[in-house]
Amino acid sequence: MTVKHVRELDRVVIRFAGDSGDGMQLTGDRFTAEAASFGNDLSTLPNFPAEIRAPAGTLPGVSSFQLHFANYDILTPGDAPDVLVAMNPAALKANLPDVPKGATIIVDTGDFTPRALKKVGWDTNPLEDSTLSAYKVHALDLSGITMEALAPFELSRKDASRSKNMFALGLLSWMYGRSIDGTVRFLQEKFASRETIRDANIAALKAGWNYGETTEEFAVSYEVKPAAMPAGIYRNITGNLALAYGLVAAARQSGLPLFLGSYPITPASDILHELSKHKRFGVRTFQAEDEVAAIGAALGASFGGALGVTTTSGPGVALKGETVGLAVSLELPLVVVDVQRGGPSTGLPTKTEQADLLQVLYGRNGESPVPVVAASSPSDCFDAAIEAARIAVTYRTPVFLLSDGYLANGSEPWAVPDVDALPTINPDFAHELNYDGDGEHAFWPYLRDPETLARPWAIPGTPGLEHRIGGIEKLDGPGTISYDPSNHDRMVRLRQAKVDGIAGIPDLQVDDPSGEARMLVLGWGSTYGPIGAAVRRARKAGHNVAQAHLRHLNPMPANTGDVLKSYDRVLVPEMNLGQLALLLRGKYLVDVVGYNRVRGLPFKAEELAEVIVEEVGSL
Amino acid sequence: MSAPVELGAPGLAGVPTADAPQTKKDFTSDQEVRWCPGCGDYAVLAAVQGFLPDLELARENIVFISGIGCSSRFPYYMNTYGMHSIHGRAPTIATGLAAARPDLSVWVITGDGDALSIGGNHLIHALRRNVNLTILLFNNRIYGLTKGQYSPTSEQGKITKSTPMGSLEAPFNPISLALGAEATFVARTIDSDRKHLTSVLSAAAAHRGTSLVEIYQNCNIFNDGAFEILKNRDSRDEVLIRLEHGEPVRFGADGQHGVRRNPATGALEVCDGDDPGLVVHDITADDPTQAFALSRLADPGTLARSPIGIFRQVERPAYGDLMNQQLDDAVTAQGEGDLQDLLRGKDTWTVG
Predict the structure, then answer these.
(1) Does the beta carbon of A410 lie under 8 angstroms from any beta carbon of chain B?
(2) What number of CA atoms fall less than 13 Å from residue A132's CA on the CB side?
(3) Any chain A CB within 8 A of the CB of B168?
(4) Which of A4, A500, A468 is nearest to A219 (CA)?
(5) Alpha-carbon distance A238 to A25, whole Å?
(6) How much is the pLDDT for A421?
(7) How far A420 CA sits from the closest chain B CA (Å)?
(8) Is residue B278 part of a domain?
(9) What CATH number is associated with residue B18?
């Protein structure tokens, strides 16, 4: 056996790429799980086409999974892969532009036939010409070796070659000193009822590991030590999972049964899938006939005293708009989750964007104020969901909770919270008549709490509080129909004042280690990671830069204007054409500078760092 | 007609009963009723307020949900819980409420535009799911609130504000539509026939699952007389077919007309009342074929030969009951959920 060297690294970015049927997402998930349980900090970026099985071997059919893991706290899934694993010519061609010179490319040569090469527009074989001369290339017939390793199982050629992703995972696991035990257990559970498939996959996984260990192809393996993280119990979590858990937690903390009305839509469907599993928590999930019915049912359940939630993406928000307006008028709690994707129209269903901010704020008829909370990272989706529910229940209002495709499918380690330390939410149902005057002893459904301006929530089944609500303007107090001009003016202002006055929103925190920064970088939503990483780079390069991030987009923290005005320049990077920037200019008369890209992918730290350095330099 | 609603009927199971006898007054809100004088909606409101005390339900456990349109003002006049929602969407709101709260008696008030045009999709899916709701569809064959455009039940060629040369569209037959949408309870009644109306409403309330009741309702402002031939003493006996469960289908002042099956086409046709082949009406028939065929007897234009009464009343588990059963089953199988366990999951690691 050859002597193998182990080299220590601080961080590695690996990208697995193959056909959309090659199992790249699973491979990435498993490597992530192993890195997580080893104690690395990590961040992931799945990237897949909207088509379930795009034509095999074509560029549009390429699916990839990028994983960044490190021995320190990281904020992004990495700008560019250090290692690309390409399972066919299309995967190599589609991903090559992202791979920096000098990086390692492991490529499965099994499908490098003239026909397959031609399909992606290569006349000559890039493995044989100078295309890859700037890279460290390991050209291996992964398919062939896998099939050889699986010969004893007498599988069809097709079935055997389907295990090549496990071979690749085994090989990469060896290269980075990851245990494969967890994946063996995973395969045992997943294929418990299909023994041959189970054993073949495990054999392929082990063969991949052994291939790295025994052949001379790989002289070096690498080690990325665990990251120093605060003490606690950790798990890996995606944004959609964290969001679903946050909703279950909010239901428990409020004592309200959770009712989800939803219509399948990418990239939000996984929240519906997840919540449908948790019936023993009293969670009711309703797959509606359309987006309108989904929110209607959620609102009906809220009327009945449930925590009503609907989950969707941008196109669904457009359809739900009228019902959100009804909820504004009814003043009932409702959480509307928008997992944003590229738009307009169908747009880029599987790609990320944050271009629904103005839609959720203003995409309704009339003056229709709705609080907006935006999650900043996959694990933050948990806390953001609880916060959205808190505002909805306390203030009897629909609340938009914004996530996006990047947060939804991306993952990171999460310190599992102690459920006893979670905030409680008080539904404070009305049980008594609330009005005395002019000899009248009555229940007035629009008699507001003087502090919160919230109206009482009296649910059907409460004797004596029978009342009618509806989308027609209501008389302030008694809640009967009113067309009175001054009453309408008052009610419009009251609804606005209620949202403007939402309490418990922390001040905007500014991070400026130097204390001397003249420029602030302000973001919202999923750009938190890339902006943070970029700001670190700029600081490392000697620049003083302050960073702040908005979680509450409506209302914004009370000190937002003061913070903005205390800097000579405010840079607002957004994955839209400047929606937050428009709001900040309008609300605070601050001449913010936007940096805007809508490529369906998160910002890269390097590009943002360059923009930051340039802006700081021009001050 | 079927018997008046029995206490503890399946449709009302789980809804608390009232502590003391109630009267129509208990169900009348303090709001002034603002339909046009002479509107058929008054008769339906009076019938509902008059018959609800018979159900002996706790008033606070009754909810009326409506959409948009003249009839959708109905909840404001009922001294129960109520919601006047948005156009066409009442079935969705009622579905969420009924599924989340099996202890409520949930009613949907809708019209031909609300239920069959903008809300058509929601209506058919509520029927398909068999949510425990009673839907009262006020069909006046016109848009009243928007002042007189043709509706999806208007006869073809109708001259209205939006169709000065006549409407081009074939109308929906709401009974046929409901039967096609897998409805388990389908009935039709007329605003002016208080006794028939009450009897049908009683049976609808007693039914567990979605009950659809089409009410022919006169709009005396924009479509006056739309059902005149069915109401007028001189004409009605010849054109109105009163369905009675278990009885041969006969109509005419002396039962001189009947309905039989054409053996060649399988369709129903009018024949003499003493024809030996009269079809016998069976609301409990599992197969909806005959109920559907009866619904097709009505002339889509004039409504002559309109059957009224219950077309279909069959048992199928209600959506909310099935949903709640799954929740119970999950707890039985796995125990109540533990949030801390859920959050921790299977793959964790410990730092420090």
Answers:
(1) no
(2) 22
(3) no
(4) A4
(5) 13
(6) 97
(7) 9
(8) yes
(9) 3.40.50.970
Interface check B18 vs A, CB under 8 A? no
Sign of torsion over alpha carbons B19, B25, B27, B31: negative
For the stretch A310-330, pLDDT in tens is 999 999 999 999 999 999 999
Buried b (16+ CB within 10 A) or exposed e, A361-400: bebbeeebbbbbbbbbbbbbbbbbbbbbbbbbbbbbbbbb
Distance CA A193, CA A186 (A): 13
Q: How is chain A split into domains, by residue range?
A: 5-224, 235-421, 428-491, 519-617
- Choose the closest CB to B339 out of A249, A284, A299: A249
Q: Which structural domain, as residue segments, surrounds residue B336? A: 10-344
In chain A, which residues have pLDDT < 50?
1
Interface mutation vs chain A, best among B342, B344, B346, most A CBs within 10 Å: B342
Task: Classify residue B349: in a domain, yes or no.
Answer: no
The highest-level CATH class for domain A519-617 is alpha beta
Helices A181-190, A24-38: crossing angle, 10 deg rounding? 130
pLDDT in tens, A326-345: 999 999 999 999 999 999 99
* Contact across the interface for A252 and B339, Cβ inside 8 Å: yes
Q: B83 and A469 in contact by Cβ < 8 A?
A: yes
The encoded tokens of residue A286 equal 């309703």
Judged by DSSP in three states, B141 sits in coil
Q: Please provide the DSSP assignment of A32-51 as one string.
A: HHHHHHHT-EEEEEEE--SS
Number of independent structural domains in chain B: 1
What ipTM was reported for this prediction? Answer: 0.97
Does residue B44 sit within a domain? yes
Q: Yes or no: say if A180 and A218 are a contact pair by the CB < 8 Å rule.
A: no
pLDDT of residue A95: 96
What b/e sequence results for A153-177 when a residue is b if at least 16 CB atoms lie within 10 Å of its CB, and e otherwise?
bebeeeebbbbbbbbbbbbbbbbbe
- DSSP string covering A197-229, please? HHHHHHHHHHHHHHHHHHSTT--EEEEEPPP--
Residue A458, token pair as written in the block = 């009296």
Amino acid occupying residue B181: A
Instruction: With beta carbons less than 8 A apart as the criterion, state whether A494 and A476 touch.
Output: yes
Fold topology of A5-224: Pyruvate-ferredoxin Oxidoreductase; domain 3 (3.40.920)
pLDDT score recorded for residue A2: 53
| Whole-angstrom distance, CA of residue A388 vs CA of residue A10 | 37
User: Could you identify the residue written with the tokens 């009754």?
Assistant: B62
Residues of chain A in contact with residue B352, where contact means CB-CB under 8 angstroms, are: 230-232
- Which CATH architecture describes the domain A235-421? 3-Layer(aba) Sandwich (3.40)
Q: What is the pLDDT, as a whole number, of residue A3?
A: 65
Q: How far apart are CA B325 and CA A339, in angstroms?
A: 31
Please name the residue that has the structure tokens 């989706």: A381
**Side chain identity at A370, as an amino acid letter?**
V
For residue B98, is it within any domain?
yes
